[in-house]
User: Which sequence fits this backbone?
């Protein structure tokens, strides 16, 4: 494969993982993100290793389909990349070689890419409108819940996930059902748990 991950040790002894291109040069676009992740954001070196692997895999696929140096176009192709991850056996040497990736691995790769895009948007390497290609935005509706001082106006959830709706056994509640649970009598602890489930990643399906 043309792109690969590589560990970097800085003069102070701190290390992180980066991505090398086909000429064994540092892929600057990814390196800035991975260096920031380790040195500024304070993430573990092992996290940069996982992210570097995901970004190298993504870069190799992009090169294989002829995509170069266009972050918006890359985001447009993320659905096709997800399909590739879910259906193509792993080709790199290792314990998973020859097997199709698990949904959890697919999700981990896509999460790394979304994290890279958040970094790129914050530094104006790409327009914020690219988020429309990465996230589905659910606008809050229905009656306000009195005890919530500042409920979120919009909630974003990833468009591309390793386990699609048809494959998942998870049952999602509607936004109205979520609001009804919050409005029902109960302790603040119970309402907090519902909020954590609803707003912290579990999500709901609009009906």
Assistant:
């Amino acid at each position: 494969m043309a792109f690969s991950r590589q560990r970097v040790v800085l003069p102070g002894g701190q290390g992180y993982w980066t991505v090398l291109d086909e000429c064994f040069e540092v892929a600057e676009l990814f390196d800035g993100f991975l260096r920031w992740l380790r040195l500024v954001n304070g993430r573990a070196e092992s996290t940069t290793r996982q992210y570097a692997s995901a970004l190298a895999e993504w870069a190799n696929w992009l090169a294989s389909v002829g995509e170069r140096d266009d972050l918006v176009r890359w985001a447009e192709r993320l659905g096709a990349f997800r399909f590739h991850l879910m259906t193509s056996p792993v080709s790199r040497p290792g314990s998973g070689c020859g097997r199709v990736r698990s949904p959890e691995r697919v999700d981990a790769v896509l999460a790394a890419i979304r994290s890279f895009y958040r970094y790129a948007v914050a530094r104006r390497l790409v327009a914020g409108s690219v988020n429309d290609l990465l996230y589905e935005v659910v606008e809050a509706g229905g009656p306000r819940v009195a005890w919530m001082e500042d409920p979120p106006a919009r909630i974003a959830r990833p468009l591309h996930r390793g386990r699609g709706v048809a494959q998942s056994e998870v049952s999602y509640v509607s936004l109205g059902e979520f609001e009804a649970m919050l409005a029902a009598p109960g302790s603040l602890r119970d309402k907090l748990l519902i909020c954590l489930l609803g707003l912290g990643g579990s999500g709901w399906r609009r009906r």
User: Anything to note?
Assistant: The longest helix spans residues 45-64. The longest strand covers residues 4-9. Residues 165-169, 202-207 have pLDDT under 50 and may be disordered.
